[in-house]
Amino acid sequence: MHIFIDKLVAEHQFKTTDLLAILRAIQARYHYIPSSAITHVAKILALPATHIIGVIEFYSFFHLHPQGDYEILISDSITDAMLGKAALIDLLSKKLHVAVGTVRDDGLVSLANTSCTGLCDQGPAGLVNGHPLTQLTPERIDLIVTLIHQHLPVEDWPAELFAITDNIKKTDVLLTQPMPLGSALTAACTRGFTETLAEIERSGLRGRGGAGFKTAMKWQFCREEHADTRYVICNADEGEPGTFKDRVLLNQYAHQVFEGMTVAAAIVGATQGFLYLRGEYSFLYEKLSSILHARREAGLLGENILGQGFSFTIKICLGAGAYICGEESALIESLEGNMGIPRNRPPYPVTHGYLGKPTIVNNVETFLAAAHIALHGSADFANIGTQQSKGTKILSICGDCLHPGIYEFAFGTTIKDILEACGATDVLGVQIGGPSGTFISAQEVERRLAFEDLATGGSFIIFNQTRNILDSVTNFTHFFAHESCGFCTPCRVGTSLLKQQIDKIVEGHGSAGDIVALEELCQLVKSQSHCGLGQTAANPILSTLERYPELYQRLLKKISYEPGFDLNGALATARRLTQRDDAAAHLAQLGEDYE
Question: Does the global pTM surpass 0.85?
């Protein structure tokens, strides 16, 4: 083991920032990370063993105890549940003779749930030793069980088990056709990088991760910082359930994404870039590495790019199963080899980012759009959309519709038009922006896709009238409780309490007081949490309480309230809790009581 680890760490040039990559390699070899490996890595890298253990325990894809030779993870996203995931994992458990969440006695196989795998348009889905499993059926389960009992290496399994389709259903200016290799970078060089930044500003491009910060402004802030080193990071850690567009963009448009990163680097003066790729997409790693190699061979990466005197390289870094790392400062912490705990802000990454240096972080779609603008200019892009939301938005559409997949719509498009395009009928509601976003009812379909109305990172989950919307609320609430990084009490304790409270109500054991307490808890978690995860964790409950209070009231024990009880009035009182001077102290006390 020591010889293997010595060689591995040397290949990573003894960089502590490469800790996740080192741990991934150890995990792949031994199916867990042995204590002796932790001790040896700690010695070589001069890190406390406690730091390494903390990192291992933080990321769900790392394990301190042996897993099966075949490690199977089944997606627990609501979209998989809607497609019959529960029955399939029970079938797998029965046929493999292994309980969910355990390793079989002979060590051959382990089976567990995992959060969204980014395959929502072709579920039920899962992973086996990092390989994607799509469109699972009882027949496919039988085949998988047979292959495992034959001890056949996963690399030799039938290709149809791993088949992934991109499902691009509607294109507009960004997805009509891939741009010629190097064309955007050449155009930016010809125009000049200062003028290219001005073109991006004129285009009105805003970050496509959901928050919508002006891209040119972010790049300008980074450019103006006095520093000897700057960095460009592409955030491809789309962990929001219902989102899968990054997977498709990197599979079909990676050259354009890398070109956008390179244009950004030339503008801000960065020499190093990172693509932070979510661990669930590790199957894209080799393809993306080959594309980067081709770009270096073509003179589009490396030294003196296109003879313009600037240099830039891109490194792919894989995550290890942590939704919170989609938050930019948590992502930077992860890139540095740490637990992905969000930083206090300010300072912001544009001034103090990776290794304390000025850093821009944008998502895959933003860099794709930036490359388009660098090539074609700002006019066509700025003429699409609304006054505050320019251009188009790429959506991952799944759930109850005839045609799930990737759609590109102009900003300003109504939800009604989007539903018609994907073949959604008899709609109950739509979860826009994933669990952290907004649920809208069928009465709100005239609302528009726009930052000023319905902003979204791209997740678009449709529910028809046969669904019980509280199933999704329960699923999302459990998701947030599982994914909380645990840094702050409001989120660590609050999400667990939300999970317990919603379970109690949905299972029919709740009183009217429990619903009022649920609203109170939602408001406290939302207002007191450290980062966006906690601040949005209550959204699924709050948005459905607002629209469907009768669904909650119908579940209450009849003895729990007097006839004429005003639930809406009680909820309004609970909502005023955010104005309490002692709100933080009150939630801290709840945490102490809970712990």
Answer: yes
How far apart, in Å, are the Cα atoms of 225 and each of 127, 352, 363, 552, 568?
43, 10, 22, 52, 51
DSSP state of 440: E
Of 418, 449, 464, which marks where a domain is finished? 464
| Distance between CA atoms of residues 466 and 317, nearest Å | 42
**Domain boundaries, position 31:** 2-58
| One domain for residues 98 and 191 | no
Joined tokens for residue 34? 């042995």
Three-point CA angle 84, 70, 3, nearest 5°: 150
Are 584 and 528 within 8 A, CB to CB? Answer: yes
Q: Taking 60 as the threshold, does the pLDDT of residue 580 lie above it?
A: no
Same-domain pairing of 491 and 518: yes
> Residue 272 pairs with which residues in a beta bridge?
231, 313
Token pair recorded at residue 548: 């469907």
Local structure of 277: helix, strand or coil: strand
User: Mean pLDDT of all residues in the chain?
Assistant: 93
Nearest Cα neighbor of 64 from 12, 23, 97 is 23
What type of residue sits at position 517? A
> Of the residues 439, 464, 489, which one is the last residue of a structural domain?
464
CA distance 484 to 463: 26
